[in-house]
Amino acid sequence: MVTIQASSAVYMKVSNISCSSQTRRRFGVSLAPTRAILNLPKVQNQAKSTTTNPLLSLPKIPYSLGFQDMDIIKRSNLDSSTVQMEKMYAILESVTDRVEMHKNIGEQRDNWNNLLLSSVNSITLAAATMAGISVLSSPSIALKLSSTILYLAATGILVIMNKIQPSQLAEEQRNASRLFKQLQTEIQTKLTIGNPTALDVNEAMEKVLALDKAYPLPLLGAMIEKFPETVESAVWWPRKTEQKKQKSQEVGMRNDYNNNNGWSPKLEEEMREVSKIIERKDVADYLRLSEKALKLNKMLAISGPVLTGLAAAATAVSGGFSSTHGVGAAATVVGVAAGALASVVNTLEHGGQVGMVFEMYRSNAGFFRLMEESIESNLKETDVERRENGEVFQTKVALKLGRSLSELKNLSSSSSRYINPHGSSDSEEFASKLF
């Protein structure tokens, strides 16, 4: 096909040349001979090109997201938010269950305290009565034996009661129920406001686990020590072991207050003074009261079993008025008097719920410690946008302390006037007006 086209082109070219030469002869025009050059297209060997370039390169087609791809991305984001929502609802269900569980167990342990106290006092008074009657009756062996057995039983029950402190156990469960209710309300608020994030889910999980650790349910192995060597405030919130250090955006300035998020240098100084007052006065005072309550509880917890044990020993060796040198009569008096004193001591300890008072003081100290740490964590955050809103945070602090905003400002401004050069602050006002 290519050969035919080339030959036809040559024929047409030659015929045109001959015609033009005849015309020039007719008019007497002589021109130089012209050489015709034929340029034929080069035909490549298909087999050769195939062997030299075996790969066939195609042009790249630009790819753009279509409506179907956008739907897939939106669907994946929706699935992720749905998963976080389901996790928050699962945490909410477990928190709601824990509220009821701690409430029921708290009521049960409060009943323990009342029933055990009534039983021990009844046993002790019955033993003292038998010990007194045994002096008047001639065959007094049965009464003395019964009185001794009752005293020993009361001693064993008192040892167990003073070890577990039912009133303190009930107070622990009441605090746990209250704190879980607070966490439940917080989670419900986050679910109502908008879609929770993975950070919210992790934070809620950490709070639940911290509460479980602070207020355990079992008695054996995991019970909180009722007579610790050192008194510390209760801790029921997750404590960060490492504080993240962040750089400020402007050199030489701690914060950028162009977008202050409700914060100002004056508000920071005010919150810093409130935190110092809480540490100096409220936390220190409740820790001091906790130590006093612990000492009193230790004394009463030791005195009760000692008195009932002494009464049991005295009743065992007691006798009538005619015994030699009056030893039996004196032992009887000791047995009756020790039993009566043991009833008084048990009533003061468990009826007065000294263990509950100790736990209440520890919880109050923990409440102020948590407030102090929340203030410090906000102040240490160099990026004001990542803090809680300053005005909202100030309102929360004022409400927790039982003060108005003006009273909170007056408290921070007047705190420096009460501190003497030695650092004591006896005449300084407490931060809280609630308790």
From TrEMBL:
Lineage: superkingdom: Eukaryota
Keyword Transmembrane helix set for record: yes
Transmembrane segments: 115-135, 141-161, 299-321, 327-348
Region (Disordered): 415-435
Record flagged with keyword Disulfide bond: no
Pfam families registered for this protein in UniProt: Chloroplast_duf
UniProtKB keywords: Membrane, Transmembrane, Transmembrane helix
Name of this chain's protein: F-box protein
The species this protein was found in: Cannabis sativa
Recorded name of the encoding gene: LOC115705016
